[in-house]
Amino acid sequence: AFDKTVAKDKSLAVGFFQRGFVHLQLEMYEEALSDYKLAFSLLRKNPFIDYKQLGLRHILYAWEVLYSTAAAQCRLQRWEEARATLDKAVVWRPEGRTAILALALARVQDRLFLEPMQVPPGEFFRPRKKEVEQLDSKDFLGKPKVISSIIPNDEYIGFEPLRPQKQGFYEPRADALR
């Protein structure tokens, strides 16, 4: 399901983030690491992305993505990379989250695995009811109309400015003006 989701929206950082979590659960560590790195790059140097406009009551923080990246690196026994990633997460962390990252740095120092972050269970993309009600199909173009030409025996079908021009063909006659 996550593969289908990220195939439809290649910029959905939270989709790659969650797929990385699933890959970790399935012990597909290289794929998880790749998804986490892609999710971080899709944040585009922003500290977070708020998905409330899309109907997901979750904010994806850059430090969470980096923390999960370090968790994948731990599973791959890349302890120095995990430490460097956590140091980078400390820069991106919001105030008040220092304890989590300090504990994670200590666990990496002791070569213990980290548990990755995830979107809280039960959170789904669920648009608000008032937004869904407005999704009725609307006919913006209207009904097609047949427009006849004022030029007798005109058989041209197409967009008028693209009509091939003939010299003297479109000049009105004196009796046509009456």
UniProtKB/TrEMBL annotation:
<dbReference type="InterPro" id="IPR019734">
    <property type="entry name" value="TPR_rpt"/>
</dbReference>
<dbReference type="InterPro" id="IPR051864">
    <property type="entry name" value="NCF2_NOXA1"/>
</dbReference>
<dbReference type="GO" id="GO:0042554">
    <property type="term" value="P:superoxide anion generation"/>
</dbReference>
<dbReference type="GO" id="GO:0016176">
    <property type="term" value="F:superoxide-generating NADPH oxidase activator activity"/>
</dbReference>
<protein>
    <submittedName>
        <fullName>NOXA1 oxidase</fullName>
    </submittedName>
</protein>
<dbReference type="InterPro" id="IPR011990">
    <property type="entry name" value="TPR-like_helical_dom_sf"/>
</dbReference>
